[in-house]
C-alpha cells in the first residue's frame, strides 16, 4: 500500500477492525518513511456475470432498482428495499464465490422479497422462475397459502 503523503511503496498496519456491516475491514496504517498515518478499507470483490457475458461489480442499487419495479403500488418503503438489498448481498457473499450470474442473484432475492411482500414476490418470481402459464402462478400461490397454514414451512 503506497503512502498517500510521500508515495513510499510500503506501510505498516497499526490496527484492523471490521466495519459496522461486517462486509469490510478498516485498517489504520503508518508509513515507515514519513511517519504519516492513514486509513484503508478493504472489501472482497463480488462480480456479476450478465447474460451478455459482461462482468461488473455487484451493486445493491441494482438489486433495489429491480425489486422496486415488482413493488410498484405496494406498501414497501425505500428503507425496506435497502434492508432487502443488504440481506441479498449478505446471502450471496456467504456462498463464498466471487462471481455469480444475474439469474443466481435474482433467485437470491426471492426469499427476502417473499418475506417483505407476497404480491411483489409473485411479480418478481414470474420473471426469475420463468412462469409460462397460469398453472405456475397457481402453484406459487398454493405454496404461499401452505406456508400461511403451517408457519414452520415459512422459514425455509
From TrEMBL:
Binds 1 zinc ion. One of its GO terms (biological process) is negative regulation of DNA-templated transcription. The keyword Zinc-finger applies. Signal peptide: none annotated. A zinc finger (unnamed) spans 3-34. InterPro entries: ATP-cone_dom, NrdR-like_N, RNR_NrdR-like. Its cofactor is Zn(2+). The keyword Flavoprotein does not apply. Residues 46-136 form the ATP-cone domain. Keywords: ATP-binding, DNA-binding, Metal-binding, Nucleotide-binding, Repressor, Transcription, Transcription regulation, Zinc, Zinc-finger. GO terms for molecular function: ATP binding; DNA binding; zinc ion binding. HAMAP family: NrdR (MF_00440). Belongs to the NrdR family. Negatively regulates transcription of bacterial ribonucleotide reductase nrd genes and operons by binding to NrdR-boxes. This is Transcriptional repressor NrdR. It comes from Microbacterium foliorum. The gene is nrdR.
Amino acid at each position: 500500500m503506497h503512502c498517500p503523503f510521500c508515495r513510499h511503496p510500503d506501510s505498516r498496519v497499526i490496527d484492523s477492525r471490521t466495519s459496522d456491516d461486517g462486509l469490510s475491514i478498516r485498517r489504520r496504517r503508518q508509513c515507515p518513511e514519513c511517519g504519516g498515518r492513514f486509513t484503508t478499507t478493504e472489501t472482497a470483490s463480488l462480480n456479476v456475470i450478465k447474460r451478455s457475458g459482461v462482468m461488473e461489480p455487484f451493486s445493491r442499487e441494482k438489486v433495489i432498482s429491480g425489486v422496486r419495479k415488482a413493488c410498484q403500488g405496494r406498501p414497501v418503503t425505500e428503507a425496506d428495499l435497502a434492508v432487502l438489498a443488504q440481506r441479498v448481498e449478505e446471502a450471496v457473499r456467504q456462498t463464498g464465490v466471487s462471481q455469480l450470474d444475474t439469474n443466481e442473484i435474482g433467485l437470491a432475492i426471492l426469499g427476502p422479497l417473499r418475506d417483505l411482500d407476497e404480491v411483489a414476490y409473485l411479480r418478481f418470481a414470474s420473471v426469475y422462475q420463468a412462469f409460462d402459464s397460469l398453472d405456475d402462478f397457481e402453484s406459487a400461490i398454493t405454496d404461499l397459502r401452505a406456508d400461511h397454514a403451517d408457519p414452520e414451512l415459512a422459514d425455509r
